[in-house]
Amino acid sequence: MSSGKRDTLIVFEARQTTKDPTYGTTIEGDWTKISDAWAEVQDVLPSRAENIDQNISIQRRPARIRVDYFDGINVTSTMRINIDGRILRIVSGPAMKGHRKEWEMMAEELSTEGQEA
């Protein structure tokens, strides 16, 4: 693990939710900052990254992200990552590498998703 590779500041964000007092359903709110970290971000080289889904072109930009392990936050796939305005959703992981040394996750930015990332 080399901190010299961690050259990109990323922000973990989670959607705030509340309960409807009348019906008890979940109401989704805005995305809020949970934590930030210095990370190594590696864009995955393109290969068949574009699909046609019901006549809509969907382009994915996957990235492998590694951050040093830190206590006090539980990173989950329901969160998203903001890299200087580039919004990525976590699609795989996070997986702990070593004994609490670093997390590795796959995230992707979609050009057309039908809903906010």
Task: Describe it.
With 117 residues, this protein is mostly beta strands. It has one domain (3-110): Bacteriophage SPP1 head-tail adaptor protein (Thrombin, subunit H, Beta Barrel). Helix content is 0%, strand content 62%. A 6-stranded antiparallel β-barrel has the order 1-2-4-7-6-5. It is globular, with a radius of gyration of 16 Å. The protein starts with 7 loop residues before the first strand and ends in a 7-residue tail after the last strand. The model has no long low-confidence stretch (mean pLDDT 80).
Question: Would you kindly provide a brief summary of this structure?
Answer:
The chain is mainly β. It is built from no helices and seven strands. The chain has a single domain, classed as Beta Barrel (Thrombin, subunit H), CATH 2.40.10.
Give the SSE layout.
Blueprint: E1 8-19, E2 26-43, E3 50-53, E4 56-68, E5 80-83, E6 86-97, E7 102-110
- Please tell me what the overall shape is: globular
- The tally of domains stands at 1
Task: Compute the number of helices.
Answer: 0
Proper CATH architecture: Beta Barrel
CATH superfamily: Bacteriophage SPP1 head-tail adaptor protein
What is the CATH class name?
Mainly Beta
According to CATH, the fold-level topology is Thrombin, subunit H
Backbone structural class: mainly beta
Task: Measure the end-to-end span.
Answer: 30 Å
Contiguous low-pLDDT stretches (5 residues minimum) are none
Strand order in the sheet with the most strands: 1-2-4-7-6-5
Count of beta strands: 7
| Helix content, binned percent | under 10%
Instruction: Evaluate the radius of gyration.
Output: 16 Å
Mean pLDDT: 80
Q: Sketch the topology as an H/E string, one letter per element.
A: EEEEEEE
Strand content: over 45%
